[in-house]
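dumping this here so i dont lose it
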């Protein structure tokens, strides 16, 4: 299990807004959290608030951007089916003991969840959080309420069932064989907002690349990539990235150097990935692509792209188109 630190920061912010001291969660790492680290943070949050329904409340307050890189990837999906499949591939709550599954049975779509662990004081925290976040995220993607959907949970609530009605906003049945969200299959191919965005496929691939890197390894390089990608081309300066990671700029540079990279090298790599994907997957002009990845001057973008790839952006696009035709 590799949890984006965005979840821990969102939980800390929720505690702050409810009048609790977020420092009670302890120091939040800059890179992905392991299963034990995340469980300890959730346990402290429940202990501080004394709220057994905290998982429901937390999941229901998460905006798509609050899911870190995964959230940005979901917002770049063109259909709900694509978003659901992405969630299964990269769900941060899956591990050796926890899993997420997507199935289609007749006219039904079924999203199942098995939690990896129980949080002391709130044993259903993970399930509550998952389904509250899932229903909230689907509503944000669709732009409307969920129709003809319901949830089955393999446990009985520790809090009044009205809490589930309030935060999930779909019918819930308790004491069922499994934890699952059931909805109609005919909405899975309905176009989402990103269906009309030319850069969405390229941006989605960049998000997935970063998600795979985060799952494979942590490190400060991964954290810097995550923050750069979240900026969507308006790349912040190194001092701003260092501040976001609670480091001095000098310390950040030293730690990146220990990982055999640098801030500028990471920026260039992210820009190059995005530029290549925009050239291959969209009809955007070379000038527009340069602007999207942070170049104000077209000639500077052309020089940089040639330095990275050995060819001009226009030639790269022509050659990519020719290879796909062949």
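and the seq i came up w/
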């Amino acid at each position: 299990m590799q949890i984006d630190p965005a979840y821990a920061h969102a939980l800390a912010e929720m505690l702050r807004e409810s009048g609790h001291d977020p420092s009670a969660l302890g120091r939040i790492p800059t890179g992905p959290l392991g299963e034990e680290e995340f469980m300890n943070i959730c346990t402290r949050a429940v202990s501080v608030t004394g709220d057994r329904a905290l998982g429901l409340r937390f999941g229901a307050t998460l905006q798509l951007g609050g899911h870190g890189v995964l959230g940005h990837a979901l917002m770049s999906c063109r259909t709900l089916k694509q978003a659901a499949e992405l969630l299964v591939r990269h769900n941060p709550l899956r591990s050796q003991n926890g899993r997420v599954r997507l199935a289609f049975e007749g006219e039904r779509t079924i999203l199942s969840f098995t939690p990896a662990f129980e949080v002391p004081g709130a044993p259903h925290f993970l399930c509550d959080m998952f389904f509250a976040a899932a229903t909230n995220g689907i509503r944000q993607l669709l732009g409307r309420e969920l129709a003809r959907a319901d949830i089955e949970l393999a446990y009985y609530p520790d809090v009044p069932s009205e809490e589930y009605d309030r935060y999930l906003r779909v019918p819930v049945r308790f004491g069922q064989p499994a934890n699952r969200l059931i909805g109609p299959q005919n909405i899975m191919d309905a176009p989402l907002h990103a269906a009309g965005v030319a850069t969405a496929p390229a941006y989605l691939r960049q998000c997935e690349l970063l998600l795979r890197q985060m799952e494979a390894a942590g490190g400060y390089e991964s954290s810097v990539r995550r923050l750069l990608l979240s900026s969507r081309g308006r790349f912040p300066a190194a001092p701003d990235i260092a501040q976001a990671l609670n480091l001095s700029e000098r310390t950040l540079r030293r730690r990146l150097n220990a990982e055999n990279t640098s801030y500028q090298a990471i920026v260039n790599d992210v820009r190059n990935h995005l530029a290549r994907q925009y050239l291959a997957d969209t009809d955007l002009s070379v000038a527009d692509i340069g602007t999207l990845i942070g170049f104000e001057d077209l000639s500077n973008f052309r020089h940089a792209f040639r330095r990275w790839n050995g060819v001009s952006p226009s030639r790269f696009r022509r050659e990519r188109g020719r290879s796909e035709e062949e």
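Strands lie at 99-105, 108-114, 150-152, 172-173, 180-184.
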